[in-house]
Amino acid sequence: MKKRLLEIVQSILCKSLIISCLVPTLLGGANSCSPQNTLFEDGESSYTIVLDSQATEIERYAALELQTWLEQVSGVRIPITAEAPAGNRLILETEDRQGRDDSFVYFTEGADIHFRGNGPRGTLYAVYAFLENELDCRWYSLKVSVAPHKDSWRFGKLRCQEAPGIRIRDNCYLDPRTQPVFSARLRNNFVRIPSPDGTGTIPGSAEGYWGVHALGTHVPVGKYFSTHPEYFCLRDGKRYGGYGQPCLSNPEVLQITIESVRKIMREQPDFLIYSVEQNDNQLFCQCDACEALAEQYGGQSGVMIWFVNQVADAVRDEFPDKFIGTFAYQYTRHAPKNIQPRENVVVRLCSIECCMWHGYDECEQNLAFLKDLEDWGTLAPHLYIWDYVTDFAQYCLPVANWKTLQPHIQDFRDNHAIGILEEGDYQTVSCELREMRTWLLSKLMWNPDADVDALIRDFTDGYYGPAGRYIRDYLDLEERILRRPGVHGNCYVHPSDTMFTLEFIREGRAIFAQAKEAVADNQTLYDRVETAEMPLCFLQMVKNPLQGFREQADELVRRVVEREGMNRLAEGVWAGGTMTAKDLLADYDRIRKEIEKSELMPAMAANPTKKGVRFTRYEGNFMSTEEMLRKGKVVEQGTMEEIAIDTRPEADHFGYVFEGWLEATEEGLYQFRITSDDGTVLLMDGKRVLELDGSHSPETGFCYLLLEKGFHHLELRYFEDCEGQILSVRLTGPDGKETDLCLTI
Ligand SMILES: [Zn+2]
Ligand SMILES: [Zn+2]
Asked: Given Cys at both, which of 273, 303, 447, 584 links 325, Cβ 3.0 to 4.6 Å?
């Protein structure tokens, strides 16, 4: 009875990687009921790894991986042979070599352990699952693998069966995209494994996606435009010879595309899906025939599916198990009408417009995408999702999507996604907690129903050691402060965004102070924790440089970017963040010099009697504060409690001059942070110290003044041109605390 129970429990728990590892603890030792078999003991083993003589390259690779990691754990190198008598064998076998689903089972038969998978990689994944579940091995990151040494390992009955939730798992972070061995250990299957002899890649080991935006490859404008302008889009009455879209209704364009796709499929047969995807622009053809197709099939996506279906029909007989891929992206994102993608067409739907922080059904910014996902999911036999999971404007920014990675992937699966591309910082290594994001996404693409909290606990404790619990506290902080009601995050949030409050930075750094304390005696773990803290320090230097310098945020950023090689910090200059670490550090140097060169401003004789500011209100059309003073009409003068502008949305074309006394309660450096829309000029003791003049949307500027204890005369000139208006002045004194500006008159 007990044995049967163990079997059932193991079979259930095996579905979840992490809980499976707990089986030994839960049941008082993995094999307390039947630990009759010993795989190794005191550096010796009677086992052999058995591979039949017909073994494929991927099976041989799986045997080498098993041998390597077992040796790490046990200290004994178990031989690989073609045959061995029953009883002490680790048998690698492939159920269906033509299989494409990577499913597997490992199980015991007497004292033998079978690792049995479907092609292309099931047997290899059976090995990895065994090493993870039974021997507690982990591949947390490219540099950090865990293979805990054991003196001995005994086992009773084992059985673990798994199949992937998502068939093509493309983890588009730098390491899994460029490091095939590591990528395979995470069961991502977009990149090929190099063959162990270094001569090539292991055939059949990847199910990738050939090409992207490939219509331009199939029908190159440079090759055809001079002789056949009619192949290309009609825009404003003229055929366009730049980077646009082909004219899809032209029958010769279809034939050229079919020939090109067929040639590529013959020459590069290892891929599963071949791109016939729109070029990366929105210049679709507006000729009469294309417009008529759009009318007939419910928009541009209908024209695209009509075209791609014909390509798919043309190659189906020769390539019955392959797919033609196309985009549902920007102008083709909505599903078409009166037409359905063929069985051998895959539609790659892109989530670029979405809020990453919320589920698709719980955020108004995602409802339109959810409708498109469900429409396509109903219509298309297969979807492939291009999903965005990091911040491309500034890779290192905190992204509070830990709770939505799973429901998003589940939604993709439930709408027939056969593949997912999770686009992260594929160019660099500067993304927030990138190792954990990479690992977690791999686990979730394999098993969309995995226990996320257990996975995060596993990673944080395994990768950060005693600091792990504080990393979880930091994730809770993100959840509490960043994902507060009404705050959303798409994949282009900027560092200046008000969602990143000083409170978030302060609380976050306090958590990291505890985390560093917990690993103070272990430099390796300490460095990992520092890397995890870098996003907060980066933000602190953006939001409050004076405080950042005081708390050595700049030094931590400098250490981390140099140690990790974070040279690139954003996807492109167009995204608006700081592009390179070099630019960032140069900026810190510039600010530090500005602070150092500030000269002491003597206090002035003054005897203010009450809190408040004097103001003069102007009206008129100005493009600068100078112009306001020169030609503005004074409409009101008086005093008010504190600096405040007319914030009624309909109010335009006005301005103010505010004046009052600022009391420096101690001698020291004071930072002024002003955000204004439109222009502002700050004067201190009659000297212009900060200029954000001119007509513009909200801009933030800083100045640093060394003030003698006592009163200083402050004058702030502000004008509003048109549209929105903002004026915020925040002061950070020598005590490091940021407050509102408080003036007296
Ligand atoms: Zn056309
Ligand atoms: Zn949202």
From this structure: 273
3-state DSSP assignment of residue 439: helix
Coil, helix or strand at residue 40: strand
**Domain count for the chain:** 4
- Considering every ligand atom shown, identify the ligand nearest to the alpha carbon of residue 246 and give its number: 1
What's the pLDDT score for residue 702?
93
745, two tokens: 């008159």
| Residue of 738, 352, 372 whose CA lies nearest to 575 | 352
Mean pLDDT value of segment 180-193: 92
Distance of CA 267 to the CA centre of its chain: 34
Strand partners for 422: 171, 387
pLDDT per position as a tens digit, 449-465: 999 999 999 999 999 99
Whether 492 is in a domain gets the answer yes
CATH number of the domain where residue 728 is located: 2.60.120.1560
Ligand positioned closest to the Cα atom of 404? 2
Could you give the CA distance from residue 624 to residue 25 in angstroms, rounded to a whole number?
A: 72
DSSP string, 237-270: TEE--SS--B-TT-HHHHHHHHHHHHHHHHH-TT
- pLDDT value at position 26? 35
Residue 578 sits in which domain range?
A: 471-596
Is residue 495 located within the same domain as residue 479?
Answer: yes
- The CA 293 to ligand 1 mean position distance, Å, reads 9
How far apart are the CA of 263 and the centre of ligand 1, in A? 25
Question: What does the longest C-alpha to C-alpha distance in the chain come to?
Answer: 102
Q: What pLDDT sits at residue 154?
A: 96
Tell me the pLDDT of the chain averaged across its residues.
92
* 3: pLDDT strictly greater than 80: no
Question: For the whole prediction, is pTM greater than 0.85?
Answer: yes
> What's the 455 CA to ligand 2 centre distance in angstroms?
24
Domain closes at, from 596, 616, 634:
596
Q: What is the CB-side half-sphere exposure of residue 251 using CA atoms within 13 A?
A: 0
pLDDT at site 402: 96
708-734 mean pLDDT? 94
Same domain, 540 and 631: no
Cβ-contact 684, 713 below 8 angstroms? yes
Question: Does the pLDDT at position 676 exceed 60?
Answer: yes
Q: What's the gap in Å between 303 CA and the centre of ligand 1?
A: 10
Q: Which ligand is closest in space to the CA of residue 306?
A: 1
404 and 358 in contact (C-beta within 8 Å)?
yes
Dihedral sign, Cα of residue 16, residue 19, residue 21, residue 24? negative
Pairwise CA distance, residues 514 & 218, whole Å: 57
User: Are 611 and 578 members of one domain?
Assistant: no
